[in-house]
Amino acid sequence: MESIGANLSEMQRTPLAPAHVAALREAGRQVSYTAGTYLARPGQLADRFVYVLDGEIEVVNAYTDERHLPSTLGPTQFMGEISFLNGGNASMAMRAVRDTSVIEVPRATMLTLMSRIPEMSDIIITVFAARRRRQIEQRDSTLVLIGEERDREVRCIAEFADRNRIPYASHALGSAEADALAATCSLAPGRPAVIFGRDTVIDDPTPDKIARLLGLNLDLVDDEDFDVLIVGGGPAGVAAGVYAGAEGLCALVTEDVAIGGQAGTSSRIENYMGFPTGISGADLVWRGQIQAMKFGTRFAMPRRVARLEALPEGGFCATFDNGKRVRGKAVVVATGVQYRRLPIPRLTEFEGAGVYYAATDIEARYSKGTEAIIIGGGNSAGQAAMFLSRTASRVRLLVRGQSLAASMSSYLSSRLEAEPTITIEYGAEVGALHGDDQLEAVTIRHAASGAEETVPSRALFVMVGAAPNTGWLADLVRLDQHGFVLTGAAVGASSLFETSRPGIFAVGDVRSGSVKRVASAVGEGSVVISRVWAFVDAGG
Predict the structure, then answer these.
(1) 3-state DSSP assignment of residue 495
(2) CA distances (Å), 234 to each of 96, 258, 281, 385, in order?
(3) Neighbouring C-beta atoms of residue 451, cutoff 10 Å
């Protein structure tokens, strides 16, 4: 299956061309650092590109102050990571091993340079992505979690980091690694914790606090102006971000949970053109995010838009749930859909503690050795079943209807039927959940016979009943009877993606009548920008 980034061992010695170095010299300045000087620390703004002329730079373990990796950066190599593209913060400490001379180029200048020299940009971005891939695969980061298997707050951070492709390390509560780390940070052993370097223990950890540490949520200026606000970071929103940046529009993409949206919860997409071996939804959209950032599009998460208003002088004002506001000449609604909370007693009580709405690597770890139960008959449910069958002792797919033909791709349903560890139970639903702090068992009710069966399980996945995320739009645009945004001919608009309010466009799953497929969402997000550009260019 396709993955993110290239292999770092193949990329780390790929030099920039002499012409590229000359461009760096002209745009930046030469700086010298004495041995032992830190060029970056975790949480510090990634505000400059650093190219090594002479000397040596090492990655430093933020907990021991010792060299973290066997290899170092030398002449012709450069510092940096993916966060540089979005104006985020460094995740690892970097230190001069000996007296070192570098070229430093301010971030904004470097991004302009990269847009002018695509061959240089390709090398830099590929190395950045390869470094992120290495961190994720080796679970290597300054961000360390203790006790995610036991503590709901820590588990929430793990899920946020995992879905946003943020590297982190994780140690089981009571393990030797956890106790040693606790001692280093002056913590009592045996307690769950989220740590970002030796001196930063995060009390009452939340995704927002982690985003602030890493610079993901952007400290936007109140009432900051953009050409286009793209609300929603799924395939449609990210595709819109790519094309908006490429067309020179000043664009902001906001997402309230994780870039990728519902597609980001898909463990394997096999019917998306160009990826014959399949790709996870999160990896697919992550690649798009990197493309968009390369063109200057900004991303902010977790940021939920609570309200949208039309301004008397033209344009729109979006207010986030933290009270901050931004303005846009146009708005692209790409908020997609979310799985409904089914009317099952105690469901919310077990959310994050046995009840999940995604099936990614992290949920697969939580499902190891237990019977996983999935509610749903669509492609997402089928992909989840296949993915979880690798780690769960058994997988049950509960389908309310009597067939998968109308809701699931044929290739996928055939695989489910052929997999011996998966059973499909038609006319079945969940009647009750059991457990104390953690889900321990699920009662399944069979409609035809009325029989009930209680199954020991620590993992229930709800993947049914998608509802549109349109409450924040208030009465600005017309919706259909199910809450999806009406567009095109249904509201007398000239474009398929225009809503009843000029300047507001809708794409992807949130749009009434759209085809609920990743490829369709990407296409709509790409195409809509031509209409947005025309609207903005005409003065709104």
Answers:
(1) coil
(2) 40, 8, 9, 22
(3) 9
How would residue 6 be classed by pLDDT, with cut points 50, 70 and 90? low
75: phi then psi, degrees, rounded to nearest 5? -50, 140
Report the pLDDT averaged over residues 342-371: 92
CA–CA dist 261, 456 (Å, integer): 30
Q: Are 387 and 267 in contact (CB under 8 A)?
A: yes
| Token pair 């906001």 in the structure block, residue | 254
Residues 6+ apart with CB under 8 A from 332: 228, 229, 230, 231, 237, 240, 505, 506, 507, 525, 528, 532
Q: 3-state DSSP call for residue 332?
A: strand
Closest to 193 (Cα-Cα) out of 203, 183, 184: 203
pLDDT > 70 in the chain, percent: 97
Give the pLDDT of residue 4.
59
165, amino acid identity: R
Rounded CA separation 225/479 (Å): 27
pLDDT at residue number 3: 57
Whole-angstrom Cα distance, residue 219 to residue 366?
Answer: 34
Contact status, residue 153 vs residue 353, Cβ threshold 8 Å? no
Asked whether 353 and 338 are in contact (CB, 8 A), the reply is no
pLDDT of res. 163: 87
Q: How far apart, in whole angstroms, are the C-alpha atoms of residue 410 and residue 415?
A: 9
Q: In what order do the strands lie in the sheet with 422-426?
A: 355-356, 459-462, 371-375, 394-399, 422-426
Which residues share a beta bridge with 428?
446
Q: Are strands 394-399 and 466-468 parallel, antiparallel or unpaired?
A: unpaired
pLDDT score of 12: 54
- Answer for the pair 413, 401: CB distance below 8 angstroms, yes or no: no
**Sequence-distant (≥ 6) Cβ neighbours of residue 109 within 8 angstroms:** 27, 28
Q: Do the beta carbons of residue 360 and residue 280 sit within 8 Å?
A: yes
DSSP-assigned letters across all residues of 252-321: EEE-SS-TTGGGGG-S-B-SSTT-TT-B-HHHHHHHHHHHHHHTT-EEE-S--EEEEEE-TTSSEEEEET
99: nearest Cα among 34, 38, 40: 34
Closest CA to 518 of 211, 116, 239: 239
CA distances from 449 to 25, 398, 423, 445, 465 (A): 77, 15, 18, 9, 24
For 372-399, what is each residue's pLDDT tens digit?
999 999 988 999 999 999 999 999 999 9
Task: Average the pLDDT over each of 27-36, 108-117, 390-399, 464-473 and give the range with the smallest value.
Answer: 464-473
